[in-house]
Amino acid sequence: MSENLLQALQERLLPHLDSGVCPIYVRRMPPCRNACPSSEDIRGHLTRVAQSQLRGRDLEESLDEAWRIIADKNPFPAVIGRICPHPCENACNRRMHDWPLAIHSIERFVGDRGIERGLILHRLAPAGSANRRVAVIGAGPSGFSCAYQLARRGYSVTVFEAADKPGGMLRRAVPAYRLPPEILEAEIGNILRLGVEVRYGMHLGSEITIEQLRSEHDAVYIAIGAHKSIRLEIDGEDLPGVQSALDFLQQVNEGASPDLHGKKVLVTGGGNAAVDAARCARWLGAEVSLSYRRTRFDMPAIPAEITAAEAEGVQIVPQSIPRHINADDIHEGADPNAGASGGISASGDNTNPGNPRLRITMMRTEPGEPDSSGRRRPVPVVGSDEHLSADFVIVAIGQKPDLAANQPFATGSVELPHNPVQALSTPGVFAGGDMLGPDFATTAIGHGRKAAAAIHEFLNGLTYREPHVPRPIDAREMKLDYYLHLKRNDQAELPSEERSGDFREVVLPLTAEQALAESRRCLSCGLCLLCDRCRIYCPREAISKDISRPQGLNMFTDYTRCSGCTICSMTCPCHYIEMGFRS
C-alpha cells in the first residue's frame, strides 16, 4: 500500500477515530468445511501444512498433525480422499479467483502417508474407562465411524455385521481401481486397534434383534446401510443376464465376475454405481453403453468418473430408459460365444456375428417440469421406442435399506428417525447412514460421529444439542486480489490404454511437493493467514504478532493504542478481522 493511499484512507476514516470501535478477531466458518458432510476441519489441516516454514516446523511433523486433524472427524482419510465427490471443492472460495483447491487429493496424500507411517488414532480416554457397552449394527463407514468415536472416549463397542468381512458398501460396491482393498483394510484395522470388536454373520432380525442388543448393551446404533437394489419394475427384469449393479460390482470385487470379453452390455442409471459398473464391464472386455433418463449434464455421478468412462470407450446414451426386456435369439444358429463388434446394436442389424441374448425396448425422454431435486423431470416421448440387443443388462438406478428382515421396521411399528441424533421409540437406540437415505460415504461417516455424540450425551444423562454453525464466509467478503493466481495441482491418471482387467488404481497420488504447493493455495477463509498486513499498515503500531501462540491466534491488538481507524480490517484478505465494540 502506497503512502498516498494510506494517507487517503486515514483522511477518509478520520471521523471514526477514537469512536470506541476496535478490531475484533472473529473465527468464521470456511465454506469448504460447511459443505463437508463429515465436517472435517479442512482449513485447519491445510494451513497446518502450508504454514510449516513460517512457524519453523518440520514438514513431516506438520503432515502428521494434518492427519490427526482429519482423523478427529473422519477415521478414513485415505478412503474418502479417493471416493468422495468432494462437495467441499464446489464450495471453495478460491473458485472465484482461479481454481478451487484439490482438497480430496491432499486428503488422500495425507491419508496414504498416515498408513505408511503407521500413525494411530488418538484416544480421548483410556479403553473401558467409560464403563458402558454400546452395540453397533453394521460394519460400514457409518457404523465404524460411530464405533471409533465411542471407543476413543473409553466405551466398550461391539460391531455386529451380517457379512463375513467388514467395510459394507465400501467393500461390496467400490471397484479396486478406485479403492484398493488394502487401503480399506488398513484404515479399518486402525479402528479395531482401539479395542472395537466385530462379530460377523450376525443378521438383524434372525441372529440378533434390536430388543436383544438393547437389553445387553447401554445403547445401540443401527447402520445397516442400503444394500437392496431398486428394481426397474418392467417385464423381463428377472431374465438371466439381467443383474443389479451391486451384485455385479460385488462379483468383480470378489474376482468372480462373468466373462464379458466381446459381449455387449447395457448399463442403465446415472450415479456412481452405474458408472463403476460400466467401467468394470469395459475393463473386462465388453462393449458397453450406459443409458440415463436425463441429460448427461444431469448425471449425479462424479463428473471426472463419467469423463474417464467415455475415454475408456463407454458410450453414454442420455435421455433413454428401458421399457421392457425380452429373451431373444437374434442371430439364430450363430455361435453364442463369438465376439461382437460395435456398440449395442439395433435389433435389425444382422451384420453382428455374435448372438446377443436380450432384446431391450428403449424409450426416449425429454425434460419436463423440475422435480424436488431441482432437476427437470424426464418425460417419456410417446412413439419413440427403439429395440436394442445386448448380452447383459446391469440395473443401477439406486439402492434402499432392506428392512423386511426386521419386523419392527417392516411392519412400521418403529419408524426411522430423520437424523442420527434422534432416538428411535426405544430410548438409547439410534440409527444413521444410508438407511436414512443413500448418500455419500462421507455423509455416513458424519452420521456415525453425530450419533456417537448423541449416545455419549444419553449415557451421561444429558440431551444432545446440535452445535451452532455460523454463516460461512463468502468470497465477496474477502480481498481476493491479495492472493496470487496459482495453478491447481491435480492428480495424474494412468493412460486409458494401460487400464485393463487387473483393476490397478487409475488415479495416481500427488507428490509431496505438489501436496505442499496445493496446501499453500488455501485462502484461510475466516482465520489468520499470517500475511502481516494488519500489523504493517496499522498507523498506531497497535498490532503485534506472536508466532508461538496457537494457529490462528497469532495477531493481537493493544487496544490502549488503537484509534478504531479500521485499516486493519480493510487490509485483512481472509476477513478474520472485523470492527466492533469490545466487550
What is the topology?
Elements: H1 3-13, E1 22-25, H2 31-35, H3 42-50, H4 59-73, H5 77-83, H6 87-91, H7 103-116, E2 133-137, H8 141-151, E3 156-161, H9 169-173, H10 181-192, E4 197-200, H11 210-216, E5 219-222, E6 228-229, E7 242-244, H12 245-253, E8 264-268, H13 272-283, E9 287-291, H14 303-311, E10 315-317, E11 320-327, E12 345-346, E13 358-370, E14 376-380, E15 386-390, E16 392-395, E17 399-400, H15 407-410, E18 429-431, H16 441-459, H17 512-519, H18 533-537, E19 543-545, E20 555-557, H19 567-571, E21 577-580
Parallel strand pairs: 2-3, 2-5, 3-4, 5-18, 7-16, 8-9, 8-16, 9-10
Antiparallel strand pairs: 1-21, 6-17, 11-13, 12-15, 13-14, 13-15, 19-20
Helix pairs in contact: 3-4, 3-17, 4-7, 5-7, 7-17, 8-16, 12-13, 13-14
